[in-house]
Amino acid sequence: MNAREIPSAIRNGETTAKEVLETHLKAIQNREEEIHAFNLVMEEEARNEAERIDALAAKGEDPGPLTGIPIAIKDNICTQGVPTTCSSKILDGWRPPYDATIIERLRDAGAVIVGKTNLDEFAMGASTENSAFGPTRNPLDTTRVPGGSSGGSAAAVAAGFAPLAIGSDTGGSIRQPAALCGVVGVKPTYGRVSRYGLVAFASSLDQIGPFAETVADAALLLEVISGHDPLDTTSIPEPPLDLSTALTQGVEGLRIGVIDELSGGAIEGISDDVLGCLEDAVQALTSAGAIVERTSVPSTVYGLSAYYVIAPAEASSNLARYDGVRFGPRVDAKTTSEMMVATRTAGFGDEVKRRIMLGTYALSAGYYDAYYGKSQKVRTLIMNDFANAYKKYDLLLSPTAPTTAFPLGDKTEDPLQMYLQDICTISSNLAGHPAMSVPFGKGTDGLPVGIQVLASAMDEHTMFRAGAVLEASNQGKS
Amino acid sequence: MTDDILDGWETVIGLEVHAELATNTKLFSSARNVFGGEPNTNIDPVSLGLPGSLPVLNKKAVELAIRVGLALNCRVQRSVFARKNYFYPDMPKAYQISQFDLPINEGGWLELPDGRQIGIERAHLEEDTGKSSHVGGGGRIHEADYSLVDYNRAGVPLIEIVGAPDLRSADDAREYVAELRSILVAIGASDGKMEEGSMRVDCNVSVRPQGNQEFGTRCEVKNINSLRSLGRAIEYEARRQVDIITSGQQVEQQTRHWDEADGRTHTLRSKEEAFDYRYFSEPDLVPLDPSPEWITEIQESQPPLPRQRRIDLAKASKTEPRDVALIVQKDLDEFALSAIEKGADASRVLVHLANNLADGVGHLTEDAFAALIHLETNGDLSATQAKTVLADLVDKGGDPAQVAADHGFEAMDTSELDALIESIINEHPDDWSAFVQGDAEERKKKSGFFVGQVMKMTKGQADGKVVNDILLHRAEN
């Protein structure tokens, strides 16, 4: 049953929230040990919530648009009283005294939270191998990674542990694992979804978004979590999205540009089978009536470099609060500053430390202009290039990730290779634009490939039109 | 003070004043902004910097900041918040949200009561830190057995007012702070209580030979808790620096800590140890761009500022603004104006307010004050009697004539007084002839003697001015 079908089935009495939950808990029981999608499965809380929803439904009340749908939450989103670890030892055992805004919205919509999913520590990584609690495996091939950093959420949906999941995307952390696990993943416009309660990695880039098995389910979830939140100053003062008409509207007459630099042009390393799938996607959109042509967004080639200055710079500041003073484990030492050093040394993993050092350096007196200042200029350049492209095109298209899912351990020794996983996705974060990954075709290894649909700021609606067409075409093929 | 080490040297002072803004809630959250309270009770996820929490700007704090900017003749402009990064246990996020290259207020001035204008470089918004108490080890973090942190103050809105290095003495500095405090209180931006830490002063001090144009190397002195310690710290620091230079060494740029108990400043950190704050724009907040309409609205609702109030009172009392500075500082100018309006003699009003009502007016009403001064200027009460009655009115209130009667104060008849004076003259013929024949100085001295005698005999009931008149009249006839 798709997520979208669950609420009406419960309202009609065809099933109950409890029954839906038990099916998914059973799936978790069967494969979680092998996959490790979760840091925490909230069996008891979920059962209580399902009962509450069933009681409401029995009284004829509507528990909301997500009635009884099990959902998995990335473990960098605060849940009141429930451990929120960011897959880091430094937050081990910390229970937030409050819910993130989106958690409140999900509960109000009748969703049933089944657990907190694994991630690369503090969302820094592209394989979910940088987790202090061990890696997540790709349900489609457990010798491979699910992508990252929201690998646990992507795997949870792909493994049937939950039809919906929440992730966060700072440089591709929803879209790339969605591509590698063969599910739909959406990074909305920056500010579309409240960040209140999302543990910050890089505040100007972070955005919460949905994972789902289908484009329609992703739309349903995005509608619920979107909309202005007074607790997040950067949230857009707009009502929640309504994407219902987008799913059936088609792409007739839409102008779509394929980003040349990411499609065999300037940037190397995009594999041939992925490029082949992209060609097929172009065909599919063209036959559906879109006008598709190649176009150039020249500054995308600098996106990765700018990102690896800006994101670590913000991270170095955002992660400074983990000092052992107010929360999380503390390593005792003679003086306060020694305690802070000892706590941070023991608490953070290598990748997090690497980025804190990078970011601290980039912001230091005497280096700021050369690194942080220059990167902000590149960011403006990228925004301008996108703005120019959107004068001509309604949407842009590219692969989501350079390859299909790669084996565990393949890139852990070479951070730069790992960083290149986000080469196609990073520019949307720098520009603040929405983008989504839709499964389309398979690689030579039989693993799924994701196609990325990019839209201009605030235009999720047109993006979902193309997403729905690609999905229909992909299903038609298989 | 002819052998003072500071002779031939000029002290250059620039002050950085932090004032807590009088809002109900904190700068970035709805936790309460109140002084005192059990430790860690006025807190929330934002003031603790809990993971996932985000700042939301307090509009009232912005309004008060704009008020301060306008009162200090600054340009109010589009501004950007920035993170100032450093580790300290009472700093919840390990960064302070402040303003760096684009402050809300820039480029103004403050006028001292004597008319000198002191430059204001900027006045920006930022959040306060929590408070650490270090237990054991003499209260210093490095030797402490353990430390306690109270986050009630964390996130309280501050305005940091950075003054230009235009001040030249400890007195200047005290006057500047007193004037700034009056302004902040007048516009309702802050309660200005230095003793509760709601107003804190750091001062930059350097010295240079008188006549030199270049600035000397400056030191920043922290931990100043009162106007008195501000003056002491500046004087100590200036002497220390002159001492270093005259002994052939160079002043090192440092941050120094004022120790109230031993009256010295001590090295806190040198320039090399200065923090690199790694400022960058706060990504969790959008730029702050107050509309011109809002700024105008705030400007139009500004109450009269101390400078204008001094001018108004000086005009009403036919004196100079600087002469009424203290009365305005004590917020007694409206009281004074009202008494003058009711016909009370302006000079007596000012004298009483400055000398006898320094601790406030208590139960004294404007009507009673004016009536009392009438009694005094009519000659019904002597100055000394008036002072006694005034003290009672402040204490308990009441009708001045009744209070005077209760004390048994009655105006002395002039002929009674004349007779008394005559008998005193007869008892002291040498003093009298010295008075009659003496020059102005001698006459003044002797008049003091006779007035004193009269006061002694009348237990202070006589009016000194009337006695003087009688003496002069007798000497010249």
How would you describe this protein?
The complex is a heterodimer of chains A (478) and B (477). By secondary structure, chain A is an alpha/beta fold. Chain A has two domains: 3-246, Alpha-Beta Complex (Amidase signature (AS) enzymes); 250-305 and 370-477, Amidase signature (AS) domain (Amidase signature (AS) enzymes, Alpha-Beta Complex). Chain A has 16 helices and eleven strands. In chain A, strands 1-3-2-4-6-5-10-11-9-7-8 form an eleven-stranded mixed β-sheet, with helices on both faces. The longest helix of chain A is centred in the last third of the chain and has 24 residues, at 369-392. Chain A is globular. The model of chain A has no long low-confidence stretch (mean pLDDT 97). Chain B is elongated and about 90 Å long. Chain B is α+β, with helices and mostly antiparallel strands and 477 residues long. In chain B, α3 links the parallel β11 and β12. In chain B, the strands form three sheets. Chain B has a nine-stranded mixed β-sheet, with helices on one face. In chain B, strands 4-3-14 form a three-stranded antiparallel β-sheet, with no helix packed on it. In chain B, strands 7-8 form a two-stranded antiparallel ribbon. Chain B has three domains: 9-298, no CATH class; 306-406, no CATH class; 414-476. Chain B has helices at residues 59-71, 170-186, 227-246, 292-300, 306-316, 325-329, 333-341, 346-356, 366-377, 383-396, 400-406, 414-427, 429-437, 440-458, 464-476; strands at 9-20, 75-76, 81-85, 95-99, 105-111, 117-127, 131-135, 146-150, 157-163, 199-209, 219-224, 254-259, 264-270, 280-281. The longest helix of chain B is centred in the middle third of the chain and has 20 residues, at 227-246. Chain B has 15 helices and 14 strands. Chains A and B meet through α10 and α11 of A and loops of B.
